[in-house]
Every structure is written in C-alpha cells, then in structure tokens.
C-alpha cells in the first residue's frame, strides 16, 4: 500500500462551521431529482461508521451531517453537494467506484457512502452563500451518492467561491477524482488515494506509453506526493462506449485494444507491476459472503432458482480454483466499466482510460468482469462476439466462462431484495439478472 503524503497524515480537522473553501465547491446535479434522500443519507453515514464517531468526539453534531440542498437551476433540480475546504483534502471513497469492489464500495448500481476521513486545512475560509441549509453549519467535506442503474446523467461543476461556474465537466458516476479539461491535456486531482491510486495510474500510463503507445493517455507530469496528488495527461478524442449500441466495428476495436494490452507488454515488465487490489480471491470471498447471508429473495421462482444454482456453484471447488492463475499475468484496469472504453470516430479505434485501480492481474478475471459488468445494461454489447475476437486459448476461455458466472452472481446478489442497490432497482431488475445467471449456469 502506498502511504499518504506526509502533509495529509493524521489530519482530522473536521470542524463544525467550516464552510469556507479555497474558492471551489464541487456540486453534483442530477436531472429531475435529488441524488440522495434523507433516509438513505442517514443510513449511508451510519454504514460508513462516521456519524457516531464524530458526534461523540464533539467535532460535528448529527444535524450537521444531514443532506444540504442546492437550489435548482435551469430545471436541473435539487442537488447533493460535496464542499472541499483548502487545497489538500481526501474525500474518502475507500473502495472502487464501480464493479463489485474490493473494499466495500458497491459500484455503479448502488454507490455506497463516500465520506471524508481527513481534511487538510490550508487556507482561511471564504464565504459561500446560498449553498447550505440556513439552520445547519456543514462539515468540511461530506458527500454520499447512491446511483441506481440507468440513472447516471448528472453533471459535475467546479464553482468559485462567488458562485460563478469555473469549469463544467460531465461524469457518469461518483468519482474519486476531479478533472480539469484543457484543450490538449487533462488534469486529474485525486480526492481519494488511500490505495495508492495516483501511483497506480502514473505507473500504468508510463508503462503503456513505452510498450503500447496510443492505447491510453500519454503521461505529461505528476505531483504524486502533493495533497491532493495530481496527474496531467494528454486529452484523448472520442466518446465512451457505455450506454451505446456498440457496433460490430467497435466490438472488434475493443478486442484489438485488449489484445494489444495483454500481449505487447513483456512478461518481465509485468512481474514488476504492483498487483491489482481487486483480484479473484477478493471477488470470490465477497460473493460467498453475500450468499452466506441467505438473503430473502421473495417468491419469484426464477430468482430462487438462480440463487440455488449460484449457491451450489459457490460451494464447489471451482471458485477456489479460480483464485490460482496458471497463466502469465497481464496489466489490467481492474475495472470492467464500459465507460473506460473510448471510441475514436476519426481513427476508428478504442482507447482505454481511468487506470487508477490498475495493476498486475489475471487476464480471464479482467475479461469476465468486462463481459458481466452491470454497465452493460445501459447499452448493447455482444459479449460473445467480443470474446470471439480476443485471442484466447481453450484454458483461458474456460476460466473466462467461470469468472463470468462469478460476476453475474455477484451482481445478482447485490441487486436482490437484501442487496445494497435494492431501493433504486427499476422494476424487473432482479428478475432480468436472475435470467442472466441461469443462462450462464445452463
């Protein structure tokens, strides 16, 4: 694990009344509705274990960590906000932003709480008016987001202290970083780096620029020990493939990109790469833990049949066999979200972005997650065609099939009645995922 920068260690100066920013406020807007309602917010805070600790310490009181509403603008609707004080803070998304996650963050289907563990206070406060509930003084940084499937069209605005927009960006999930888009470069400032995300991304981009040029952004410069850590990289043209009806040409380009990633980096180089934190053993343990809770699945026979098939598979030796990789490792994104695949219309190729979770990984594990990531429900991807385009040995193909079962079952359990995404599931979500599980186990 990469240590936090020294300037951020041991700083827990969350104080009631810290409304001042260094001229920036991160505000999350979602069209038509709030991101979080008060009941969900309170639950999220309790799950994160922060409410009682801070209340008992006297640093902030319980009313101070209730949702604050930003007045709607241009018909966008109310918003949950994150306020950042000083130029050094850590908004603790202690876990992956998507996928099943290796440290508790539950991903695109239902993001769990993201709450600040540290606030590095470096400047005198500047007043920010009109953003907070008048009866409550907010904590330095408090944020939480539950994002249901198909509800990802929200905007991120960096605002100055006077309320005027400084820079507008789009995002399709709650992020562990802020992006500043220039004409030719992107500046990425991390709000979470407990797992060494900046070091992982910089190492991956540097390695890719040498061995697989053109596949990912080119690294320009980095301040890895700053607070917050910052990376500047080239800005790539194109649009993300998440939410798209991915054409056969684009499927082929995705496969070509993955083949390049998995084949062009020498094995001796891969061996020196830090292992990805999200790996087969972590995934197997997480899915088994969810299944062991014997969740209430209701009366739908398809849903119950899917659980029985999955539970029997989890009790077999197959999942344990998946935790040992008999094949050479590769550099992997450790993130199957289809939003990490960027289609360049002009060059007719796919590039890969968002390397902050990357590391030495299992190729079949990586491909299984891409195939079954819940982001697939936002668009259309012919997974079988994608896998047919990828150069797989028979042994790899068999392992990919088993990992697909693991990920599909994990999402099924997460989307179920007792799962963390339950409050937001569109009607029929669980039943459709149950059918997916049964298809893969047939």
TrEMBL record:
InterPro entries: Aminoglycoside_PTrfase, Kinase-like_dom_sf. Coiled coil: none annotated. It comes from the Bacteria. Residues 80-111 are annotated as: Disordered. Residues 185-401 form the Aminoglycoside phosphotransferase domain. This is Aminoglycoside phosphotransferase domain-containing protein. The lineage of its organism: Bacteria, Bacillati, Actinomycetota, Actinomycetes, Streptosporangiales.
């Amino acid at each position: 694990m990469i240590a936090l920068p020294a300037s951020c260690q041991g700083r827990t100066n969350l104080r009631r009344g810290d409304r001042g920013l260094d001229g920036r406020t991160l505000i999350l807007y979602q069209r038509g509705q709030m991101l979080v309602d008060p009941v969900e917010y309170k639950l999220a805070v309790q799950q994160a274990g922060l409410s009682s600790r801070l209340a008992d310490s006297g640093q902030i009181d319980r009313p101070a960590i209730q949702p604050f509403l930003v007045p709607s603008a241009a018909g966008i609707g109310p918003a949950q906000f994150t306020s950042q004080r000083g130029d050094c803070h850590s908004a603790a998304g202690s876990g992956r932003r998507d996928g099943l996650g290796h440290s508790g963050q539950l991903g695109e289907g239902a993001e769990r709480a993201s709450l600040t563990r540290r606030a590095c206070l470096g400047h005198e406060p500047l007043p920010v008016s009109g953003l907070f509930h008048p009866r409550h003084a907010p904590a330095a940084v408090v944020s939480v987001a539950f994002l249901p499937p198909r509800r990802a069209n929200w905007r991120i605005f960096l605002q100055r202290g006077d309320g005027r927009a400084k820079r507008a960006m789009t995002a399709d999930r709650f992020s562990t970083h802020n992006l500043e888009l220039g004409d030719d470069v992107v500046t990425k400032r991390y709000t979470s780096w407990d797992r060494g995300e900046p070091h992982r991304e910089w190492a991956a981009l540097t390695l890719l620029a040498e061995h697989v040029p053109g596949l990912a952004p080119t690294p320009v410069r980095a301040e890895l020990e700053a607070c917050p850590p910052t990376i500047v990289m080239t800005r790539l043209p194109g649009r993300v493939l998440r939410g798209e009806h991915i054409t056969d040409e684009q499927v082929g380009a995705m496969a070509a990109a993955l083949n390049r990633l998995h084949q062009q980096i020498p094995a001796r180089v891969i061996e020196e790469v830090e292992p990805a934190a999200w790996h087969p053993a972590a995934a197997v343990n997480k899915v088994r833990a969810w299944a062991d809770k014997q969740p209430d699945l209701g009366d739908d026979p398809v849903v119950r049949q899917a659980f029985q098939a999955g539970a029997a598979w989890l009790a077999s030796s197959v999942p344990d066999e998946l935790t040992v990789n008999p094949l050479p490792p590769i550099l992997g994104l450790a993130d199957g979200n289809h939003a990490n695949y960027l289609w360049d219309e002009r060059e007719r190729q796919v590039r890969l972005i968002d390397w902050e979770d990357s590391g030495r990984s299992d190729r079949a594990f990586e491909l299984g997650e891409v195939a079954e990531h819940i982001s697939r429900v936002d668009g259309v991807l012919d997974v079988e065609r994608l896998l047919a385009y990828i150069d797989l040995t028979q042994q790899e193909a068999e392992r990919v099939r088993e990992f697909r079962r693991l990920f599909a079952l994990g999402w099924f359990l997460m989307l179920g009645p007792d799962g963390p995404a339950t409050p937001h599931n569109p009607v029929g979500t669980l039943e459709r995922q149950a059918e997916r599980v049964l298809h893969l186990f047939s």
